[in-house]
C-alpha cells in the first residue's frame, strides 16, 4: 500500500514535485492544483495515512512537523500577512490522498467558509 502511495513516491523523488523544503524526515512541495497564491503541502517522508495514524510517528517527529510547518510558512513569506494550516482526514473532509499531509495556504485573504 505505502509502496504505491503517491506522496511516498514524491518523498522518494520517484514522482517529480516542486520541493521547497526538506529536513528531519519532512518534505514540503507545491500543491499541483493550488487553491491560494501560496499552497504548499507538508508530509512526513514515512508513510502515515492521515491524522488518525499520527501515533505512527515518534513524539520527536510530531514536534518536528509543527516546527517544519512554521518554517515553511515563514520561508514562503506568509508570517506577517497570515496563513492557514489544515489536514483532512476521511470522506467528510474530502481527503483524496491517503498519506498525512498539511495544507499551508496564504498569500491572499482566505475564505471564511472552510
Ligand atoms: P486532500 O484532498 O486533503 O487529500 O489533498 C490532496 C492534495 O494533493 C490536493 O490539494 C491535490 O491538489 C494535491 N496533489 C495531488 N497530486 C499531487 C501531485 N502529484 N503533486 C502535488 N500535489 C498533488
CATH superfamily: HIT-like
Indicate the CATH architecture: 2-Layer Sandwich
Return the CATH class: Alpha Beta
Proportion in helices: 10-25%
Query: How would you spell out the order of helices and strands?
Result: HEEEHEE
Low-pLDDT ranges? none
Please name the CATH topology: HIT family, subunit A
Overall body shape: globular
Major pleated sheet: 5 strands, antiparallel
Domains, number: 1
In what range is the share of β-strand residues? 15-25%
Average of per-residue pLDDT values: 96
Structural class: alpha+beta
Are any ligands bound, and if so which? adenosine monophosphate
Terminal Cα separation, in Å? 30 Å
Strand order of the largest sheet: 1-2-3-5-4
> How many helical elements?
2
Rg to the nearest angstrom?
A: 13 Å
Number of strands: 5
Polypeptide structure, described:
The protein is an alpha+beta fold. The protein has one domain: HIT-like (HIT family, subunit A, 2-Layer Sandwich). 21% of the residues lie in helices and 23% in strands. The chain is globular. The mean pLDDT is 96. The structure holds adenosine monophosphate. Adenosine monophosphate binds next to loops.
Give the secondary structure arrangement, pairings included.
Layout: H1 6-12, E1 19-23, E2 26-30, E3 38-44, H2 59-75, E4 83-86, E5 102-106
Antiparallel strand pairs: 1-2, 2-3, 3-5, 4-5
The structure holds adenosine monophosphate (AMP).
Short description:
This protein is an alpha+beta fold. The chain has helices spanning 6-12, 59-75; strands spanning 19-23, 26-30, 38-44, 83-86, 102-106.
Amino acid at each position: 500500500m505505502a509502496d504505491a502511495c503517491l506522496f511516498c513516491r514524491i518523498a522518494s523523488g520517484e514522482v517529480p514535485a516542486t520541493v521547497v523544503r526538506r529536513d528531519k524526515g519532512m518534505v514540503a512541495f507545491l500543491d499541483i492544483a493550488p487553491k491560494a497564491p501560496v499552497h504548499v503541502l507538508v508530509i512526513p517522508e514515512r508513510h502515515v495515512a492521515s491524522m488518525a495514524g499520527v501515533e505512527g510517528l515518534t513524539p520527536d517527529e510530531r514536534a518536528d512537523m509543527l516546527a517544519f510547518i512554521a518554517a515553511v510558512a515563514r520561508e514562503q513569506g506568509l508570517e506577517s500577512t497570515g496563513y492557514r494550516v489544515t489536514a483532512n482526514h476521511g470522506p467528510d473532509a474530502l481527503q483524496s490522498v491517503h498519506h498525512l499531509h498539511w495544507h499551508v495556504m496564504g498569500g491572499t485573504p482566505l475564505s471564511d467558509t472552510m
